[in-house]
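User: Modeling request: complex.
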Amino acid sequence: MTDSAHRRETDESILYIKDLRTCFYLPERGRFLRAVDGVSLTIKPGETLVVVGESGSGKSVTMLSVMGLVSGAPGIVSGRIWYRKPGDPEAVNLLEGLERFSRVAYEPSLSVEKDVRGWERWHDSGMKERRGRDFAMIFQNPRNALHPFFTVGQQVSEAVKRRSPELSSSEAMEEAEAWLSRVHLDSPKKRLVDYPHNLSGGMCQRVMIAMTLAARPIVLIADEPTTGLDATIQSRVLDLLEEMKAELQTTTIVITHDMGVAKRLADRVAVMYAGRVVEVGRAKEVLDRAHAPKHPYAYDLLGAIPTAEDIQSRRKLSVIEGDVPDLSRLGRGCQFVSRCGVIPPGAEERCREKEPELEKVSPEHRLRCWLHAGEEARA
Amino acid sequence: MLAPRRRRGESVSANGAVLLEVQDLKTYFYRRGRFGTVRRDDYVPAVDGVSFQLREGETLGLVGESGCGKTTLGRTLLRLAPATSGEVRYQGENLLELSPSAMRQKRRELQMIFQDLDAALNPKMTVGELLREAITLKTPSPKQDVLRRAEELLSLVKLKSAKLSAYPPDLSGGEKRRVSIARILALEPKLIVADEPLSALDVSIAAQVANLMRDLQETLGLTYLFISHDLQMVELIAHHVIVMYLGQVVEMAPATTLSENACHPYSRLLWSAANAHTGRRTAESSGWELSEQERPKEGCRFRARCAVYRAMGEPSVCREKDSEPELLQIAPQHQVRCHFPERESIEV
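Assistant: Request completed. Predicted assembly structure:
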């Protein structure tokens, strides 16, 4: 990439992830599992980006990599994450110095030499400052994310103090109470002295949200914020996220596999498959099944959700045959090739042998598919 | 050979004979005192007076939020949870009165798909062994026949016979679900209680399994009780739907009626929440879940969260001790437990 193009990307976006790769070594198979395999994404200030994909598509690991919370070896092996705090003149690379700790070879097969402990110590010294201040995350399982030995009040007030250390304990506790009532927890004063096991799943989720919002982060990452909650509660949690976003102008990244959630919240949507972004664009382009061009996987995925017409006619759902590929044994070509139903005759070899790039098909819309390669140039 | 259970020329429709009839079924869980004594007055009414009919070849959907008793109801029907009172008539026979050994025989016809994929399959047995266990339980037969039958079952759930030697941890979620269905089919059941069969699966895999379940129903004439909180899936799969709230049936109707014309405020709340991604926010009044102390002790149980109750100025009929609403027939096959079922103009 040229300097000016790089300049433009970092200037326009708050986060600019470039060719991120995160792997895990599987000793029993003697191979690397490529959880995130060359993800590039840009997130603009104030927008909501929704990352959709099935389990194992790498959406959570991508965001954990941004937070610097990947556990397991070797973890992040290459890539850059540019972060430009609003008001700062220059973007900083959150993965600065990674090359010194990690050496990657792709031929004949992926091999990584990484000083995991050294990298963690180095990386953590920079990220510690940002986690809970600039970046905050709502985790998938709120019950596990809250500490069982501390009361709700202690945990939320800790988050308050993280942002404003000058507050006294009692002031922080007061603010914590205010945040708990902001997330519609009833009798927040009583809840302050409750432990997480006293609360229902929906309540834990709201305490989690109160904690992340109390930090007033610049970037909020929500990992499956509604999974496992009841339909009525789900919808309220989404209301809450929208409310908070409007009020605090937080840049939000939401990870979900629920297209309903994506439709509701997203400004832009990225579809991930087998550790890659296969389609990214404005919500109405990506989530509309009829919008062309469209990545075959995204098309099929949208077809697997019952729509009003499906229910009316009681017709069968269209499904994607087959299963997600084994991430420790990825092929050379397009990763969707074994399940793809639209490979034109004669093109099979190309799809099987060479992986398409994530290419622009319109100013905001990018696809990773041979069918649409070079489309913008032709237009 | 796994012959279709219906006779030739006979089409499977929702008008089959009544297979299961449930009358005023109650399952109460009693709290225990300090020395393990049962406290008669302190109980959780997980299932509280549920009645319905299920016809052969039909799918009954059961929806409601967690804790409403839908799983307990499914378990009670198969006597996996002890019923407190009521009747469960299966082909005219009250299952609750059967002796334990007679019930064990009966269970071959009444099977359950459990929610937890991993707990349902022994991780130390291969798929072949898991299937053999089920097949020989039905009819003890020589090894060759068992193998043939196992392959037949796998092809029925659209898995390759190469999977026979695989262990459950090596299978994907969708494959595990298929194996657990194949194991159940080995017993040639009539009624399958499916407890959230799709909830642990990814979107594309859930669609595959949903299609599979519908195919099996057509070819084998199965009857399903489909427990789920995914309203769209329930609408797609089920013929009739029951909405439960705090142990009671609050609305019962054909699936199509319910999605278009739900009458109970709770059903309307559920459907509007499910459709919330169309951009409409849920009204502020709908509230979050209630803690146990906040549940009304008398009168209508849904009162505390009910928009209609509030909009009508909190009428006393919803509050009074002896006026808990009855399940009323408001249209053919459509029953609602509400004093004011026709207040559709009130936003929930």
